[in-house]
Every structure is written in structure tokens, then in C-alpha cells.
Amino acid sequence: MIYLKTPEELVKMRAAADLASRALGEVAKLIAPGVTTNKLDAVAREYILDNGGRPACLGYGGFPGTMCMEVNEVVVHGFPSSYTLREGDIIGTDIVAELDGYNGDMCYTFPVGEVDPKVLDLCRTTKEALYKGIEACVEGKRIGDIANAVQTYCEKRGYTVVREMCGHGIGRKMHEDPEVPNYGRRGVGPLIKNGMCLCIEPMINMGSRNIVIEPDGWTCRTRDRKPSAHYEHTLAIHDGETEILTTFDYIREALGEAYI
Ligand code: MF3
Ligand code: CO
Q1: Which positions ≥6 away from 37 have C-beta within 8 Å?
Q2: What atom of ligand 1 comes closest to residue 232's alpha carbon?
Q3: Whole-prediction pTM value?
């Protein structure tokens, strides 16, 4: 069931997305060698709570954090821990903030200090693929057009697309219909309609596309342990336009020169 949002609901979606964006901006300020992922998670949690929101991942199906922590080969759903970031790591931080009953969901993969240029290229390409997907997200087109845009962009550059995980609708619930895959054929899938809120979130690998789930039942990593990158925005389609509700602007402000 796809829930189309009213203009009043979109006001709340915008506010939730802004809260998630600001929280990730706070996280960005701390990204450096030596910081633990637990610390990053605590900062995000406190920011959301201090601003009247709820950290929606915390307790979701038993998930133990405010954010998913995706260090190097971790694709999605890693736990915050005592792991200390090291120079050369990349870390994806995936956050969902609920505010006034609506959810904003986003992810950003940060380089930690000096990172191998090949790994930086993976990150850049994945972020660009997110925006290719957003460009293809046009009212009257289909979900498969988004999927195909992401896939084509990444595969042309020699990267692989994780297939087991995908983007999704969002609203009162963090995950609503439809699924938004990162691979597929143009012209197939649900029609993109005014009132839809969608999360597009490419998860792109340097090596093979295969993944494994760790024994904790959550942490998803690449089978070959090569790096994976992940970026995500929450979007709303209304009045024939696609509005990006989340923003990386706070991250850009926090990182300055280091922003990629
Ligand atoms: N934010 C993730 C997504 O993009 C979901 C997080 S799973 C949770 O769909 F369990 F941590 F909430
Ligand atoms: Co999501």
C-alpha cells in the first residue's frame, strides 16, 4: 500500500528530514581518527532528543543504535560500538529521525582523514549515483527508471550494485511501499505520483556485489571485504516536481575543505 501525503503531511516530512540533516551535520563535526562509533551515535541521539524528535532506528526490530555504522566493507546495518575510526577508513552513517509522527531518513559516507583515491572515487560515484536516481525520479515515470539510472551510472564506472537491499517509501513509518531498488529496467515498477515520499539509497561496492550477514543478524558486509559506499536522501514528489527533503548542506558546512 503506497500512502500519498497531503500538503499538511509534507510540512511534517520536511521538518523530520531537516532534523535528520542537522543531526548528521553534528556527527560530521566529529568525524576524525580516534573517535568511536558509539560517540557518534550518542551525539546523533542527543541532538534528535534535544530537538523534540525520536531516534527511529533505536529499538527498531531490536536495533541497538540511533544510526547504522558502515565502516569500510560494511554495506548497511552495522552497530555502533567501541570501534575507533582510523585514518583511511570510510564510514557510512545512516540515520532516521521521527518528528511529530513522520520520518526523515538519510545516509552519508565520510572519509576519515586521508583516504585511498580509489576508495574516494567509489564514494563520489555513489553520491553522484544518488543524484542520478533523483533526476530520474519524475512524476509520471516509474520506479524502474530510478533503479536503472543508479545501476547504469555505477556499473559503467566499474562498480557493482548491492541487490538485496533497496530504498523505500517513507512517512509515518520508516519503511513504506514501494521498494526502490538500485538496479532494474526502465519503464517498469510503480508509477511515480504526486504525494509520494521516497528514499533513494544506492549501496555500491568496489568488488563483487555479493554480501553476507554477520552472525549478529544485522551487520551486512561485502563478501570479498572490499569497501562499499552508501548515500541516501528522502524525497517528496508534489506538484509535478521532486523536492529533496534531506540535505547534505550541514555536512558541507561542518567539513569545509574536506567535503567530497
Ligand atoms: N535507515 C535505514 C534505511 O535506509 C534503515 C535502518 S534499519 C534500522 O532504510 F533498523 F536501523 F532502523
Ligand atoms: Co532508508
Answers
A1: 69, 71, 78, 80, 81, 83, 85, 91
A2: 4
A3: 0.98
